[in-house]
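Before the break, one more example. Copy the sequence into your notebook; we will annotate it together after we see the structure.
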Amino acid sequence: MTGKTGGQGGKGVAVSFNKLTYTVPVKKKEKLDIIKDLNGVFHPGRLTALMGPSGSGKTTLMDILAGRKSGAGKIQGEVLYGGCSAPPAVLKHLTGYVEQFDTLIGELTVDQMLMYTAEMKLPRSVPYAEKRKRVDNVIQQLRLNKCQNTVIGSVLSRGISGGQAKRVNVALALISQPLVVYLDEPTSGLDSKMANEVCAILKELVKDGYTIIATVHSPTSFAFSLFDDLMMLQAGGAMVYAGPVADVKNYFVTCGFPFPEEQGYSLPDWLVDTTSGATGATTDATEIEDGAPATADFAAHWAKSKHSEAYSKEFEETLAKLKADPAPLKELPTSGPGQLKALRTLLSYRTSTHYRDGEFLGPRFGDKIFMSLLSLSLYWGIGSKKDAQSIQSTAAVLFFFCALCGYGAAAYVPSLTLERALFYRERADGLYTAVTYYVAKFIEEAVLCIFTSLVFSLAVFWAMELQGSFIIFAVSYFLTSMVGIVLAYAVAAVAPNMDAANAMLPTYVTTCLYFGGLFIVFEKIPVGWYWYSWTSFMRYSWGMLMLNQFQDQATGQEAVFYNDGGVVTVLEFYNLNEGLMSDMGFCAGVLSGLLILFGFLGALGLTFVSHVKR
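Here is what the structure looks like once it is written out:
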């Protein structure tokens, strides 16, 4: 362990952990150690690699240090930043975290993405000019000048390269000027040239005093040589090696595993391959020194080695110094610009971009335009006709309009599911709360829904010669559309993936159709199911449209339906002529209540249901 030992050197701060263990329950009375009894210090001004085979706990260790660990596991031990404990609110500003997979907004340019994050992360006290300066600085640091004004892009639309995207993610972490930066597999998915570029930039950053820790799985030899320190874990989360990268080959010679340079091995690949079978062979340390067995318990050898003894001694001395001279963490900001500012930023950057995106607008306008044209070709002028067939067809098409809002809501499911990884990352970074994000999505869709409802209502109301008030028709269609949208959001929030959401949503909408009043009139619903009909949004949506079309209108006075030997009007036939369901205000009120209820459930789901456990 070499390098700075102080808590306040440069921009960084020393990160120490003492007797750190993380266990998870696997059966009723059994537990599994993911990491076990780890001690260590990561120093400012040094680039540290975390390595080990899959399942060795590299990312788990980093998540615990960054305060991002979730799930049912139990954390034991001490984690200190600059010799003192850091509360969660401080950690969000003290650390930057770069996840393995890129989570960027494809519709924004690189510059817009960075300014968006700066507006979200930095306190209100930071003026716009300072935010602009910070963005320009990280663009220079991460060599993003050439792609600064390039749209980031996505899988379906070409944008920046994979290496540039990785550097943008690093830049996002640096916007708030953190003291410690964690990176999970920063070279994953990159070719050797891009991977080398990313690691070279990280090496430049530590010269500014940052404390940088990165998990790496299979770096190139050049990239590996850029790291100052290495911490290796084996399966089960036990320490295999900790110290300078320059000393690792000599250490493994003492384990009986000399590096076979003549075989053309890459040192980092060889280290992982060699330790990946290290799950606790019975060979003791003496046998390891002498016989170079095929597999070995490297953790046991480390615990008995002189390297470990020296490391532990330096660790204790460093920890004592850090505690004697703790970093002034209380001076760090503990809050961002506030949720109202976050809401405005979401709307100004993301919503405004969506409103200019054809892929976003297409599904929201397309089905309304197509179905209005189809309806007009089938039902032109039908609303004013008084014969039984026309009245029946009018009732059916009004019901169909309501159903369209339910089934068409499937178009809104991707709005949440495809942004899930981005939402989790930005919430963990402290950019906004789940409620703020949900409110922004609600406003985004509500404003657009006003226009889509008007387009649809204008297209069908007069051409089909529907009766009653155009305003009531348009408001009813708007409310029903919004119920469908928030229902889709509620399903998307709790469903584990898009396939599940696309199965759950139409299933529920279909049950609403059964109890909406057209297929089976209310008085004919079996007693055991009657209560459920009151929960169907279709009942109130269709009821509102039917009352507007037929109540106090000439077409509604025609007794053209046969019922139990008598002749009744359409409202009498569907039980809409008396009781609560004959009150248009009641229908509108319950529909609004369901809108609020589904919206609340969606926000609740986003807040408490997580489909990614770290």
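The CA atoms of residues 351 and 444 lie 6 Å apart. Residues 339-608 form one domain. Try to locate both features in your own notes.
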